[in-house]
Recover the amino acids of this structure.
């Protein structure tokens, strides 16, 4: 995973990579991984991020001049809409440049992506090797048969594809392909997004990771991780590293080695990662203390539900008590967690929803500064729940546009909850957000934070006049 040199000999040709607009500002690590592989193979690579810049027709025509191919990384949900917009814009400028889609949605539904006439090729699974082989074939007018993970349309309209292959370690990432500052400004810190491992051995029913990584977990060695981060922290004067691994903590010895390595950095850095509540509840507290000393101060924890019955039904391998125990431990060690919950899951009952609501309150008692957002369930392609829903006759998104308008903010579309239930979830999210704020709290927000803490302690969510007042004050003037 050592970062390659930024320069490259563009003798092979030029490739343009696009990251579609999305409601977050994480660095586009998937795009960077593909760009790094292409640059190492001798291609000139340019990365465009739709969250930061959308070129007009003239600018795009200049960028496409002499371009060998255009790659677009596509997540299910909102990014699909911008991916379609950009892909169609490319083809309106020149129909000659091949467009290749890769990423999560093409990996899960390659045939659907190829139904879009402006998409020429789809790469399923980790796409670094396939992208290089395809680019070399296009540059040399060679054949494209048997490229791992590549799908395309035959002249008769039939879809031809080959099976993807999983590398044995996470791909290298050349951060020199990005201008870093635009990603720091919205987050108010010099934060580096980083992946030290990929995949997950668990089988949560709502998750599509098993369909892409087949329960495999691949990881860089602790020595590689620490050496690369030491260089990046020093070069970019980083304040924080955000590990975006699906499963950072799988082997305690590995986590310990990374913690000790980060503890020895010349410049201390804060860091965050994803953990399972069951792991935290059982983790040796000496190890947790070591990780905290090394800079761990924030954590993402997938809780999903406060109902043991529902947790078992989605194969979470987790109990409500383990969630609470993890909150108690993190509070003792001063780590601020974000516990994500999902409501509207198939089979969820009113009793299950009450259990989740009560869990949010109890986490607030165990850890006053824990973040506990509740998201609305939405089917994700490739997951067991989505497959079961389709088999049961549920109407699922059937086109790219429908998948693009399908996300966990759109509760009204799912039909799983009533308007009153949706309103109560949003009310709970509102008060939980303000109740968990830690000093220094801005003076104008202090009264709202104090009232939210009272609401959380007394479990009273009715007549949310504070929420109405804040919405009215923020309403645009007509």
């Amino acid at each position: 995973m050592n970062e390659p040199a930024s320069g490259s000999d563009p003798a092979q040709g030029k490739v343009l990579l696009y990251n579609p607009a999305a409601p977050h500002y994480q660095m586009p690590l998937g795009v960077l991984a593909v760009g790094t592989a292409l640059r190492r193979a001798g291609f000139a690579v340019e990365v465009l991020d739709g969250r930061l810049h959308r070129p007009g027709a003239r600018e795009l025509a200049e960028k496409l001049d002499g371009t060998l191919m255009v790659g677009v990384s596509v997540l299910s949900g909102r990014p699909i809409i911008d991916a379609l917009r950009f892909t169609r814009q490319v083809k309106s400028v020149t129909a000659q440049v091949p467009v290749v889609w890769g990423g999560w949605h093409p990996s899960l539904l390659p045939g659907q992506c190829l139904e879009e006439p402006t998409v020429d090729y789809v790469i399923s699974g980790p796409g670094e090797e396939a992208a290089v082989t395809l680019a070399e074939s296009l540059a040399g007018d060679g054949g494209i048969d048997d490229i791992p993970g590549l799908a395309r349309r035959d002249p008769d309209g039939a879809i031809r594809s080959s099976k993807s292959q999983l590398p044995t370690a996470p791909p290298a990432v050349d951060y020199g392909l990005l201008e870093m500052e635009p990603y720091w400004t919205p987050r108010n810190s010099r934060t580096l997004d980083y992946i030290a491992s990929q995949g997950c051995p668990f089988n949560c029913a709502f998750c599509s990771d098993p369909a892409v990584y087949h329960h495999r977990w691949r990881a860089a060695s602790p020595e590689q991780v620490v050496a690369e981060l030491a260089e990046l922290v020093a070069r970019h004067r980083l304040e924080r590293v955000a590990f975006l691994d699906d499963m950072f903590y799988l082997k305690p010895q590995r986590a310990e080695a990374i913690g000790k390595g980060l503890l020895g950095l010349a410049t201390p850095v804060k860091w965050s990662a994803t953990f399972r509540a069951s792991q935290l509840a059982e983790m040796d507290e000496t190890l947790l203390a070591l990780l905290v000393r090394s800079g761990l101060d924030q954590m993402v924890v997938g809780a999903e539900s406060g109902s043991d019955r529902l947790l078992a039904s989605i194969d979470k391998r987790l109990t409500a008590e383990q969630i609470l125990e993890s909150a108690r431990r993190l509070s003792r060690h001063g780590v601020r967690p974000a516990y994500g919950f999902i409501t509207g899951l198939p089979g969820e009952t009113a009793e299950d929803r009450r259990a989740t609501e009560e869990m949010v309150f109890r986490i607030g008692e165990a850890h006053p500064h824990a973040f506990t957002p509740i998201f609305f369930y939405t089917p994700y392609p490739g997951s067991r729940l989505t497959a079961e829903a389709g088999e049961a006759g549920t109407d699922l998104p059937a086109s790219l546009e429908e998948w693009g308008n399908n996300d966990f903010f759109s509760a009204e579309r799912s039909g799983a909850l009533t308007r009153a239930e949706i309103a109560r979830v949003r009310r709970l999210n509102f008060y939980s957000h303000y109740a968990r704020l830690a000093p220094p709290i801005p003076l104008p927000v202090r009264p709202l934070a104090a009232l939210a803490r009272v609401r959380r302690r007394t479990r009273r969510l009715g007549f949310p006049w504070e929420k109405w007042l804040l919405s009215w004050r923020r309403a645009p003037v007509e």
User: Anything to note?
Assistant: The chain has two domains: 10-161, 189-417.
